[in-house]
């Protein structure tokens, strides 16, 4: 069994549970041992991430944020996944690379950083030579992110809220805004201005996603304004309209899809600020589900499926 001192008094993420995850579980609901639920070729990321060949995604079990509206709730709650060690995880990366994916995409990795760090070191020694994407809610400790310098090439980061009352209400994280600001700043400090190869695939840099929530246009505007004022076009924004209610929650506004009219207003606002480097979604994506099947494919076996399989 692998052992990292960080798991013995776990403060890897901003929850700062300070518990021994070899004996118990923290807010993430996961022990020290890493669990994953799927490794596959994902076609639904931003164009310079998915490209034509897809992104080699590894979906980790558990989550340190647990948004009430989570679209991947069956794995975020920690109830589904297969235990794997860092050597096995490195093998999964290399298996994905053999399938000609553009990158390795680590989805919801924040509570497993020590094991992931070790797996990346192993994989790179064994021939991993494609970009590594850290796909996160941005509820990350800066000190933990610093241990990934030189191992992660692309940060695919969320900025979910700009109001602590909203973050407390939906994610039980009253400090989300300042945590996310600090985390994204560290990400940018590590990888800098976005770099692309000759095929317009991303080699390094930061994309910050914002999933617009129903009836929260003004909060979304504040996020766009902050990110543009802080980083200009040195990072890419990804403004998403794909919010999909997957189970009924106590807040009625979250039991519906977003207003396309509000989404269009957000895009117009971004343009009025001068934003040029941004990804937007077509109107009908609000009617689609971007949730893969968490069936242990690529984790329990070596079979690599695409996102819609």
UniProtKB/TrEMBL annotation:
It comes from the Bacteria. GO terms for molecular function: [formate-C-acetyltransferase]-activating enzyme activity; lyase activity. This is Pyruvate formate lyase activating enzyme. Keywords: Iron, Iron-sulfur, Lyase, Metal-binding, Oxidoreductase, Pyruvate, S-adenosyl-L-methionine. It is an enzyme of class 1 (oxidoreductase). SUPFAM superfamilies: Radical SAM enzymes. The keyword S-adenosyl-L-methionine applies. Residues 58-187 form the Radical SAM core domain. The keyword Secreted does not apply. Its EC number is 1.97.1.4.
């Amino acid at each position: 069994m692998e052992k990292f001192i960080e798991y013995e008094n776990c403060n890897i993420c901003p929850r700062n549970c300070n518990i021994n995850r070899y004996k118990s579980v923290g807010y993430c609901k996961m022990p020290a041992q890493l669990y994953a639920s799927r490794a596959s070729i994902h076609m639904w990321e931003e164009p310079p991430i998915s490209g034509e060949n897809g992104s080699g995604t590894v979906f980790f079990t558990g989550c340190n944020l647990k948004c009430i509206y989570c679209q991947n709730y069956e794995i975020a709650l920690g109830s589904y996944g297969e235990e794997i060690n860092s050597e096995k995880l490195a093998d999964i990366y290399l298996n994905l690379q053999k399938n000609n994916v553009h990158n390795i995409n680590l989805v919801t990795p924040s509570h497993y950083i020590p094991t992931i760090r070790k797996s990346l070191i192993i994989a790179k020694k064994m021939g991993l030579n494609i970009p590594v994407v850290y796909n996160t809610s941005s509820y990350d400790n800066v000190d933990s992110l610093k241990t990934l310098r030189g191992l992660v090439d692309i940060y695919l980061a969320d900025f979910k809220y700009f109001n602590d009352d909203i973050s407390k209400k939906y994610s039980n994280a009253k400090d989300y805004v300042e945590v996310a600001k600090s985390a994204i700043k560290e990400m940018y400090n590590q990888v800098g201005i976005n770099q692309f190869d000759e095929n317009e695939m991303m080699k390094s840099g930061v994309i910050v996603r914002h999933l617009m929530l129903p009836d929260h246009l003004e909060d979304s505007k504040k996020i766009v304004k902050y990110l543009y004022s802080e980083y200009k076009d040195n990072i890419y924004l990804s403004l998403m309209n794909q919010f999909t209610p997957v189970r009924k929650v106590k807040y009625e506004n979250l039991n519906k899809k977003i207003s396309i009219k509000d989404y269009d207003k957000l895009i117009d606002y971004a343009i009025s600020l001068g934003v040029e480097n941004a990804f937007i979604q077509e109107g009908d994506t609000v009617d689609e589900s971007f949730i893969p099947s968490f069936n242990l494919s690529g984790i329990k076996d070596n079979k690599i499926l695409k996102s819609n399989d």
